[in-house]
Amino acid sequence: MSDREKTAQRLLGSSARRWYDPEIDIDWDAPLLPDAYCIPPHRVSLYGTDLWDRLDERQRVDLSRHEAASMASSGVWFEIILMRVLCRHLAGLDPTTAHVQYGLTEIADECRHSVMFGRAIERLGAPSYGPQRLPRLLSGVMVHTARGPSMYAGILLAEEILDRMQREAMADERVQPLVRMINRIHVLEEARHVRFAREELLRAVADCSPAAMAYHRAVTAHSALVISRSLIHPQVYAAVGLDPRRARRVALGNPHYQRTLAWAAERVVAFLRDAGLMGRPGRRYWRRSYLLSGH
């Protein structure tokens, strides 16, 4: 039996033993705590800036709620891209293999997660911000062209950045209990998805020529920039009475937020670097993404 099949069988076993149904396992009717943050305050994009200092506590809590909703709606977007890419990858493969069966199981997981995030946005009373126009257009191209190492690199960047933020938030008692439970479910099930994507990426890298690796490094760098910019929609700032354009500039120029992005991406960046997917071409996109420590 191949290593790919052995991994898929282990992941299928784990999926059968440990999974959640958000419709049953989350109390959607439980009242929200009026003063609880939805992400830890030190992870809010404006934390540490003059604009943050001017906000009262109610506005700070509301901004965390809208940023959490923005990340959830980005999460739905990421996961729909993943499902479309996985469906394209699995089409035509042998459905009797554990590899295909686990891929289909992951798609089912992502369907539940997307519904869970959608319900969370609704429960938090925030808009479904989603990505801006350009990232949405680029994602449409990616679905039809993504392949090999850069396809898995994009998946890992989206999953692991959110995963690290959620791991911290689910253990923070300042965070809304509903949000903590959603994070706990997502973290548990995404651990299997990350394992699957990391191993597939390494197998794909082993088959690449130097020219192909240069192509995949460039695509990965572009993905890093698009993903990092898509987490927080500018309109979240309007929800607390701030000018969206000015607040967006302040957030992107905020050293504290830049360090938060680098911290969230620390593990996946190390993995991609070891896999040979960082470097020329694409270095300037990595720098602009703020996902590199000491950029």
How would you describe this structure in keywords?
295 residues; mainly alpha; Ribonucleotide Reductase, subunit A; 13 helices; 0% strand; globular
- Could you tell me how far the N terminus lies from the C terminus, measured between alpha carbons in angstroms? 43 Å
Major sheet: none
Gyration radius (Cα, Å) is: 19 Å
Number of DSSP helical runs: 13
Averaged pLDDT: 90
- Following the backbone from N to C, one meets helices and strands in this order, namely HHHHHHHHHHHHH
CATH fold topology: Ribonucleotide Reductase, subunit A
Structure classification: mainly alpha
How many domain modules?
A: 1
Gross morphology: globular
Low-pLDDT windows of residues: none
User: Architecture, according to CATH?
Assistant: Orthogonal Bundle
- Fraction in helix: over 70%
Could you explain how this protein is built, in words?
There is one protein chain. With 295 residues, the protein is mostly helical. It has a single domain (3-289), classed as Ribonucleotide Reductase, subunit A. The chain is built from 13 helices and no strands. Helix 1 (3-17) runs antiparallel to helix 8 and helix 4 (57-90) packs antiparallel against helix 5 (98-123). The model has no long low-confidence stretch (mean pLDDT 90).
